[in-house]
Amino acid sequence: MRLGFSLPVFGKAAATPGGIARYAKAAEQAGAASLWVGDRLLSPVAPVVAYPGYDTMPEEFHTAQDPFTALAIAAAVTENAVLGSSTINATQYQPANFARLLTSIDVASNGRLLPGLGIGWSPDEYDAVGIPMSERGKRLDDLLDLLGKWWTQDLVSHTGIGYTIAETHVDLKPVRKPPVHLAGFGEKALRRVAERADGWLPVWSVPEQFPATVLTDTLAKLRAGAEQAGRDPQALGVALRVNAAPEAKPEAIAESVVQIVSTLEPDEVFVDLTYLTSSVEEHIDLTGRLLELTAQG
To answer: Which of 48-57, 92-101, 174-183, 269-278 shows the lowest per-residue confidence on average (mean pLDDT)?
Structure first.
């Protein structure tokens, strides 16, 4: 099993000076196959839309590291681990800067970047960056168009939504074209995954909140859609995030991970440690424990 873990980008552990570098290095040495970031710009006191399952925002999001900085740090102190995002709210960023950031991180990591992108759900965050939330779907399609050019063409020009890129030299290319994975369960989101993405970003919960057939059936639908679009359905990757409740025990997490991996057969799977630890030391200890338990399972 290729088991990965979230970097300490949220919560008390995220405020530890040098914590991301220390954890990333220790996690890879312990056997972590991948390291992941999430993306949270704001933690509003009175959010327009509360975080799913909460009346407001989880306390862990009061402290949030920049995802690109975290990935760059991890790239500098590791050699083999896949560096992923699940997810970066891609449409909240200026597209040309976003393309350059992803390319730079892929080069820094020698081709280990797995960019998982989404469109977010927080009106407060869209207001903060001055982007209409109603445009997020078409902005994601536009960004995918731009990334396709940025990573394959030496001369790039593009007319996007609210911006224009005059023909320009873009000689910095990724080591290999990063496999863009997209999040979502809605009809439009799933159609975009099937027709445009290199992979899908599903989520599993411990304890489970829905049967595994929800994921397997959706993946079958995605692959059928990819085939209808003239794409290789088996080339559609899967990077699974496992969200564990704060009270979940390591043994229960490991057992659930082993079961869902055997059922879904994802290419990558990682456990989000955000709600399970409050220090970098706990992050490191739990990583080692879960690697040990899943190896036994």
So the answer is: 48-57
CA dist., res. 203 & res. 205, Å (int): 7
User: What confidence tens digit (pLDDT) does each residue in 205-226 have?
Assistant: 999 999 999 999 999 999 999 9
Cα 256 to Cα 244, 283, 297, distances in angstroms: 10, 19, 10
* Complete DSSP assignment for 186-232: SHHHHHHHHHH-SEEE-EEEES-SS-THHHHHHHHHHHHHHHHTTS-
**Strand partners for 53:** none
Do residues 42 and 128 make contact, with C-beta atoms less than 8 angstroms apart? yes
pTM: predicted TM-score of the whole model, two decimal places: 0.96
CATH class of 3-186+200-213+241-296: alpha beta
- In 3D space, the residue among 2, 88, 5, 82 whose CA is nearest the CA of residue 276 turns out to be 5
pLDDT given for residue 53 in this prediction: 82
**Per-residue pLDDT, 145:** 98
CA distance linking residue 268 with residue 202, whole number of Å: 11
The closest of 263, 285, 238, 226 to 86, measured between CA atoms, is 238
One-letter amino acid identity for 20?
Answer: I
Mean pLDDT of the chain: 97
Please name which of 256, 248, 250 lies closest in space to residue 291, comparing C-alpha atoms.
250
Domain ranges of the chain: 3-186+200-213+241-296
